[in-house]
């Protein structure tokens, strides 16, 4: 995607991670909103070099996030992040950065603390995260650790009303599909089964996750572009994980301590397929939005995130995993979400610069 056509400067998303001795805006001591699984410092991660890099586009400078300017720009506004746990990760990062200027006060949370809302009284800003991992209507049979008791039922032509019923309240949204589409699921359209992904033994036609992802994104972006409520929309691309020698549930790990350079790693076929669908549907939405006077912007974070295998909690998703000296204990790794502080903070640099240049 040629971002230069959008911001008039250069492509923010082609670049390199370069050393940055200034380090992050915040630590686990100065930020109140880091969830336990992303609090790598508190959980005992011994290395800190992952904190001292910044994203540098090839042909321009990307300014560091300015919390005061952002809050001033967002005065009397409402900003929502809609999606899965990566969205929650992103919101935590933004809360941490903004808290150096003004702390948000939590004014709502659902029972599981997956959807939450904060209010910044000085600037009259409302910041929300809305839990909707598929963005379309889904029946999910999972516990908080990802263990499933039945196959997910996904209605590709019905949006999740958890976010659509609130949509008109938001001035700005950040929205994304994601890794949930790789899960085993049965797909419905017009309340009838039309296929599935990875549902062996069910006597249902295998149509693959690409079918569902494309159908769902088309429905989602149509809703946004056809809405009478003109919401400034950021659409974020898929986030690659960095599990090596296995997946999250069978021994996969991520123990690298530095970024990759360009050419040292390739996007996996699955992520590449998902990103292509996302870019196709975004292009379609962009054409419609220009006709109806709506602003939609791409946050193409796939490539820059791919280069940061060192930024995940790994075994430090839990507190002091090797306490007592047992280094051979089997511990689940998190190689999908991001340590805070960490590389995901750069997503806010990109979001702010896109807002400023808009």
UniProtKB/TrEMBL annotation:
Similarity comment: Belongs to the PC-esterase family. TBL subfamily.
Organism: Solanum commersonii (Commerson's wild potato)
Alphabetized GO MF terms: O-acetyltransferase activity
Membrane topology: Single-pass membrane protein
Top-rank lineage group of the source organism: Eukaryota
Keyword terms of this UniProt record: Membrane, Signal-anchor, Transmembrane, Transmembrane helix
Compartment list: Membrane
Limits of the Trichome birefringence-like C-terminal domain: 62-353
GO CC term, one of those recorded: membrane
Protein name, entry field: Trichome birefringence-like N-terminal domain-containing protein
Any Pfam family matching the protein: PMR5N
Domain Trichome birefringence-like N-terminal: 9-61
